[in-house]
Amino acid sequence: MTGAIPALSHRLRPLLAAVCLGATSVLMAAPASARGPDGIADIAEKVIDAVVNISTSQTVEAKGGGGEGRGAMPQLPPGSPFEEFFDDFFKNRRGGGGPGGNSKGGDLQPRKTNSLGSGFIVDTSGIVVTNNHVIADADEINVIMNDGTKIKAELVGVDKKTDLAVLKFKPVKPLVAVKFGDSDKLRLGEWVIAIGNPFSLGGTVTAGIVSARNRDINSGPYDSYIQTDAAINRGNSGGPLFNLDGEVIGVNTLIISPSGGSIGIGFAVPSKTVAGVVDSLRQFGELRRGWLGVRIQQVTDEIAESLNIKPARGALIAGVEDKGPAKPAGIEPGDVVVKFDGKDIKEPKDLSRVVADTAVGKEVDVVIIRKGAEETRKVTLGRLEDTDKAVQAAAKTKEEPAEKPVTQKALGLDLATLSKDLRTRYKIKDSVKGVVITSVDGASDAAEKRLSAGEVIVEVAQEAVSNAADIKKRVDQLKKDGKKSILLLVSNADGELRFVALSVQ
């Protein structure tokens, strides 16, 4: 180790020389704000005992080839001073040998894998918040306190959609708990502090700023992350992000990194979301989210022009569940929701979040735009059932002589009136009504909007169509009326609807 220090100094000598030459006055003149707030040490000292390490173990089937799993060796840059440490640590943790943990190369046996993450105490009775992916599929969960005390924990509940989990354990001594702050009050550039367990180095404190708010990275239906440049690495997952009042304003969850290490782009679930999830999990052991019973999509500029909405905004209703709360309230496909329970809806994600956060059974006002005019509907929210859709086997259909479809061309599409043969060919459900697309011109706007053969046009400009001639006639009339684009309601073979605006230029 003694030889490494001179070598390091030798490599840094040009840089040190550059710093010494003429830079002294700059360093001395640097304002305090450039070094960060002076209170970070005080805050860290106050809250660090509430931050815990989460250790889990799981029995998994061994795989050949040394495949990576929950206990995979982190990717370190060549020559890293931690390389030898991590190599020893991970091999010993797996029981020696190679990456697969089987040094004899014989039969592969089920083995124990370990995973480490972070969490924080929110109640002195022993309630801990962490990420769901930290404890997912674990056979055993342990909470490791800042002083090294290890206590077995039980799972209270999880929410996969926000990647949050709540644990509980029996304290062996008085605990320190932290409180949630208001993430809605965060400002860009505000200082934040992350504390966690990166690479098993517990009690690690890093600081940075709020780089962005309400960040949607398409990881789930309720994305609204806080983005920060505070250093977050593997093992920080589930740890708290604090404001300068020592309040938790986020749960560190994700990073973007080609190397697996921090590059200054980390994401935290905002405390407003976390607090609601934690309360529900503690009270019910599960999430009880509001449900409107609709399928929604983005209001593009073309769709907005077709619906006489200026400017483009809101969430377009593409479909309504027959047994959902929206149906009896009179909400229909083609309506655009612009306000829900007094909150403005600028895009579909806004509606998803506000509906999920609204209490089940609450009656709310929903403001929609229908054919250019605003209307208000009262809806009593149902409960979103978090169940997977059942997979239905396709029924075998007796083959019949093929019918030659009568086609029309419009908007870069070959269109045909639905027949038994076409339903069989494209496996279209009997409940789907309209005109089937049999071919799409690859150079057309329809191809760019990803329309494809086998989809069915249900409406043109919010009027139902039943045969190919109807569409041709309707499109010709809209062109004469000077429309720049035409709004189509399109169904797939299973009856799922979406709106598509096609240019008539």
Descriptors:
about 500 residues, alpha+beta, Thrombin, subunit H, Pdz3 Domain, seven-stranded antiparallel β-sheet, six-stranded antiparallel barrel, 11 helices, elongated, disordered N terminus
How would you portray this structure in words?
It is a single chain. The protein is α+β, with helices and mostly antiparallel strands and 505 residues long. Among the domains are: 183-284, Trypsin-like serine proteases (Thrombin, subunit H, Beta Barrel); 290-383, Roll (Pdz3 Domain), CATH 2.30.42.10; 407-503, Pdz3 Domain, CATH 2.30.42. It has eleven helices and 27 strands. The strands form five sheets. Strands 21, 22, 23, 24, 25, 26 and 27 form a seven-stranded antiparallel beta sheet that branches. The protein has a six-stranded antiparallel beta barrel with strand order 1-2-3-6-5-4. The longest helix is centred in the first third of the chain and has 17 residues, at 4-20. The radius of gyration is 29 Å and the shape is elongated. The termini are far apart. Residues 1-34, 64-86, 88-106 and 387-404 have low confidence and may be disordered.
